[in-house]
Amino acid sequence: MTSYDADLLVVGGGPGGLATALHARRRGLSVVVVEPRDGPVDKACGEGLMPGGLSELTALGVDPAGMPFRGIAYVSDRRRAQARFRNGPGRGVRRTTLHAALEARAKQQDTEWIRARVTAVEQDAGGVTAAGVRAKWLVAADGLHSTVRRAVGITARAGTPRRYGVRRHFRVPAWSEFVEVHWSRWGEAYVTPVEPDLVGVAILSRGRPDLAWFPELERRLAGADRGPARGCGPLRQVVSRRVAGRVLLVGDAAGYEDALTGEGISLAVKQAAAVIDAIAADAPASYEAAWHRVTRDYRWLTRALVLASAPPLTRRAVVPVSTLLPPAFRWGVNILGS
Ligand SMILES: Cc1cc2nc3c(=O)[nH]c(=O)nc-3n(C[C@H](O)[C@H](O)[C@H](O)COP(=O)(O)OP(=O)(O)OC[C@H]3O[C@@H](n4cnc5c(N)ncnc54)[C@H](O)[C@@H]3O)c2cc1C
Predict the structure, then answer these.
(1) Which domain CATH number covers 242?
(2) CB-based pocket (< 6 A), ligand 1
(3) Which spans of this chain does the record mark as coiled coil (predicted)?
(4) From ligand 1's centre to the CA of 95, what distance in Å?
(5) Has this prediction a pTM greater than 0.85?
């Protein structure tokens, strides 16, 4: 069969899928996006856009409202290590705000949308079909537990340690120009200002999260109106490969380490550029190496931090060591922010 409904079918209308759609439209490809949820879509997320990811988004014409943050601070027991980004601020942006901005831009760029959940994928040498659409290529950006990934036979397993994330919003005036990561024995609480009087708190841990693990933070948030909790996990997803014929994986669907370094959206947006380069060159296999290149620093730094902070003894040392070695802390923050 040689006729197509579109050049590219994007499964998943999150940041990875919509950035892919925008890159594809820039190359003149026709795009259909399949997303089951009505916008604006929310998700468990720390909501911090790193400077590198933010500049990729603005280059795509997406400039969502939010709160600038100057860097990252690690906090515990009245100790604080903080480092500024060298290349301008990041931005705390509510997921619903980000989704609305991405969706508006994608629609303005003539993408077609179908409201459906993909459950099966068929492909042959010339094309791929899902949700009743036949396209030359399919990019799956359907998240951590990707259905498309499974449907095309790409294996994935939850890695160790098994960690989960839960986020809530608290209506209090933002008190810091930094994303604060509060460390306790049992988990980390990641505080991102997203509006002048609203902060998001994402707790990452192996078990059921509890704000009482972070007494200083709990005091600050006492009495504040709080939004519903949203959770997801296990966070670490080890994915065997990212390309199966004409199907390519982007964002969390392509594999994920941990939310501790707050990079997932930026990485998804960078992978979107790489996947469209590979498709435009008719060289899908080249995407595997490009994915490894784009995600390398994040994977090794995040993995190293998660493993180093797993044993209680080294975990207690994370913040003190960060305060004692400002250049090393600044270096790590800027690698992840770039
Ligand atoms: C607690 C926590 C804190 C985090 N903090 C940050 C942070 O501060 N900064 C940061 O950059 N990243 C953070 N992340 C990571 C970030 O949320 C993800 O990396 C990012 O959302 C990945 O985008 P995506 O488009 O790949 O997937 P998603 O955002 O998950 O989007 C997937 C989309 O696919 C759709 N979908 C699912 N199944 C199907 C199907 N079968 N058919 C069609 N559509 C489907 C979903 O409805 C959804 O809209 C955090 C993650 C967690 C869990």
Answers:
(1) 3.50.50.60
(2) 11-17, 34-37, 41, 43-48, 117-118, 141-143, 147, 165, 167, 202, 232, 251-253, 259, 262-266, 268
(3) none
(4) 9
(5) yes
